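Sequence in, structure out.
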Amino acid sequence: MKIPEHPHTPFYWRRHWTRRRFFHLLGGAVTASVAMPPVLRGNSYVVAPVETKSTARNVIFILLSGAPSHIDTFDFKMVDGVTPESLAPETFGDVVWPVGLLPDLAQRLDKFAIVRSVRAWALVHSLAQTWAQIGRSPAAALGDIAPHVGSIVAVEKAAERRDSDVLPAFLALNANGVQGQGFLPAGYAPFKHTAAASTPQRGLSNVAAPAAFGARWDLLNALDKPLRQASPLGQPAEDFAAFYEQARRLMEEAQPGGAVDRVFKFTAEDVERYGNTNFGAACLVAHQALAANRGTRFVQVNLGGWDHHQNIYAENALPALSRQLDRGVAALLDDLQSSGSIAETLVVMMGEFGRTVGPLSAAAGRDHYLQQFAMFAGAGVRGGRIIGATDAEGRFTTDPGWSRNRDVRVEDIEATIYSALGINWTTIRTDEPTGRGYELVPLSSQDVYGPIHDLWDA
């Protein structure tokens, strides 16, 4: 495959563990499957008996790809002669908030916590976006085969799946460039779906004629079953059969009125409440997938376009994207609250890094910068608080604000997700193909990184 020549060549063009490559290297020992494969038992051990928070059942991870300006949003800093009056900052307790950009979230400051002492490791979009999703350097020894955090959640929670769980454990919505399952079987890969505000009430497409499909399914089984029983492929043939069966069940539930159909179907009123945008539609589907309680445990939602090197304050730049973010996330928090799902759903939102501070560039924009923020809500996280502080311009951390007394890193955020879900973040998986052992959080066995439990603590 030829890698495109582009100044922002996506890092996800790196060589992945595709189904074909997996078969080639491992002789077909384990097959790819959209179905949840058998639980991988005996393939991991823990280094330390840590105390996890265990307050969450589900996670919604919102990636603001392109990297929003932290000093214009969640770590607001007024720059005299630069910050537009339209951002309309107001003070709520100790928080200065750009009400002109994020008015709905201004009314919900008590619902979420902001960590302002986050520091990125890299300033290249593709590299940092991958880092945010796999929780480690993509250039590290196992970076090339590292699974997405959502894939790790899927495999760690596979034993909890019920027969009625037809939805994929890991759902990726509007997530271009979402990372894959790495060395894990492809059944733990993200199930990708594009949610669009322009298609309310439709639900899923191409699910008509169930009777005709059933007849074809029976014919396929009649022809294929004897071949599977005598197949020289052995177990992989049975694995493929399980994959097809799971896909069939998913299609049945996608019929009008089925559980899957209800997840991906919404009314015009719903989408308007979420801001009438594709991002809002994705947030709505995320909520409905978790509310269905049919197997989805991790949802990633992307909102891209934040790479404002030029004309950052133009109406179609930061203001327009902020409105999408504001309406979508506010409605998501409201629905999680009203449904009661907020108590067991951790919401995490971040970009891959921040943007330069102070005066604008010659192009009236802001360039890449390491200092950034992360937002957390739900699953018992104490809302209405700020963890960490930066200097007057937002250049660097002046107060880490948490127990480790240093900048928060992506690896710490990854550990926080695992802890909330009751997953021991010092776990080392032994089923990766190099024999090195794969730490869920790199260097956590040496206590280098760990969860931000201060989000829950009084």
